[in-house]
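Hi support team,

I'm opening this ticket because the web form for multi-chain structure prediction keeps timing out on my end. I have pasted the exact lines I submitted so you can reproduce it. The total is 582 residues across two entries, so I didn't expect it to be a heavy job. Is there a limit I'm missing, or should I split the entries? Thanks in advance, R.K.
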Amino acid sequence: MTEHDRRVRAEQRERFDFAVIANWIPPGERVLDLGCGDGRLLRYLSETRDVTGYGVEIDRESVLGCIRNGVDVIQMDIECGLSGFEDASFEHVIISQALQTMHTTERILGEMLRVAAEAVVSFPNFAYRTNRAAIAAGHMPVSEDLPYDWFDTPNVRFFTIVDFENLCARLGIEIRERLAFDEAGRAVSEDPNLNGSLAFYRLGRRT
Amino acid sequence: MSQENSVGFVTSQRAYFNEPLKLKSGAELPRFELVFETYGTLNSERSNAVLVCHALSGSHHVAGRYADDPENVGWWNNLVGPGKALDTRKFFVVGVNNLGGCYGSTGPLSINPETGKRYGAVFPLVTVEDWVAAQARLADYLGIRTWAAVIGGSLGGMQALEWSLQFPDRIRHAMVIASAPKLSAQNIAFNEVARQAIISDPDFHGGDYAEHGVVPTRGLRLARMIGHITYLSDTQMAEKFGRQLRHGEHKFSYEVDFEIESYLRYQGDKFAAFFDANTYLMTTKALDYFDPAYDFDGNLAAALARARASFFVAGFSTDWRFAPARSREIVFALLHNRLHVVYAEIDCSAGHDSFLLDDAHYHDLLRAYLENIAT
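Hello R.K., no limit was hit. The queue was backed up. Here is the completed structure from your submission:
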């Protein structure tokens, strides 16, 4: 694959991810996007769903990107919690493929469901078939959804669909909806922990 | 100074206001003058005007230099100019010396029309709110209904914030940099020490030193030395001066031993030679009093409910005078009110004074934000 093809592919993937998330965000909502990068998702949601909201980002170049994209952004470290954000001040809080790059997983999930009624989480499933095959062959997996080598990956938490759902159960988090997709972007229903490369969740507080 | 991207030679202008200005203290100024400078061109829609508010020791001379005083470069010259982050090819930029200042606007050094003498000690205390009210008169005078942006660092940022509260429909963007929604007890404490240094100088004469033909230079010098410590970071002082000795050895005297002493004395002397003591006292009081939440039981979010502007807020990692946490107070109060806000926390070793430096990333942020609001 050429660099151009790779970029086109990445953009297609990204648009696909955005569309999945947007589908869960009713129009006109107020959202918070954690680890928002250069604000592309928020911009997409604002253009397609008339959503308003803020991004949170620690990386300075990404913050600059948000400003260039005309996206409201707050530069702070999510690992330190979301103090300052008021309880239930957003309808949705999103963390799109960033949870696995953070250490304080439990705290972040708790904070997300404090500041918003519902959370949308997406992450790469480390137990996906080809990832398992890579490990079995003696290598850390590199795939469409895990595009980094072990030595330059931003990921610090390596977990699977099953692991994540166990954690949600332990934290009293209700899984309201789950979608899993394989590397080609096809929805997976059978054994998602094996067949799903990327997982999306709609989470709430168990009442 | 490099000529590249400079606004070049500039000339100060003066506006006269004959309508009385009621001050927050209850006092009234029957008439006043403001000196100001402008850079760039006001467009036909009058929609590209940006007001630059100065901090404690700044002035209306924001950019460029004077033909008859070429060494006197504007205090934010690295930001303002053609092609610079605040681009004078796109924006009409206005700098103004605040009311009570000592650079030519009506202040303690001006002649009191009622007595024919300098105001001195009887010049009323003016507040951030009063400055903004006076700036609004200047906006009227210049035919500017709405500022595209009001920008300032430190005390200048407080004015930008105050604009969004006092004139919510006359400011589209407030750019509040290295600032705070109110002073902390520690901030006030430093100001009080500075004031006492001036007031206890035997040459102060209760503020009427001009009538005695003297200047409380020693007090002003001390005040500036104290202030300067709070403008710099511990890190930067260590990097710049460390424990370097002026004479290469300990002198066992109270003359300058360490380079940092020499630096502070130099800064103090330089400042005391031109700045007015009454203006300094008054300005520190304006800082102390600024607190938009005061009338809202300390609830900043409630105080900011009036605001309609979009905000750019920035703090600097090593600023301990107005630490980033103080900027975040503003940010979360804005969030509560669902206002547009961008908040950047900039890594810079230079402490509070970072806002005046031309750190590349800092200026990239300002440039990106300003480019989006250019019409």
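A quick check on our side: Chain A touches chain B through 19 residues (CB under 8 Å). Let us know if the file doesn't open in your viewer.
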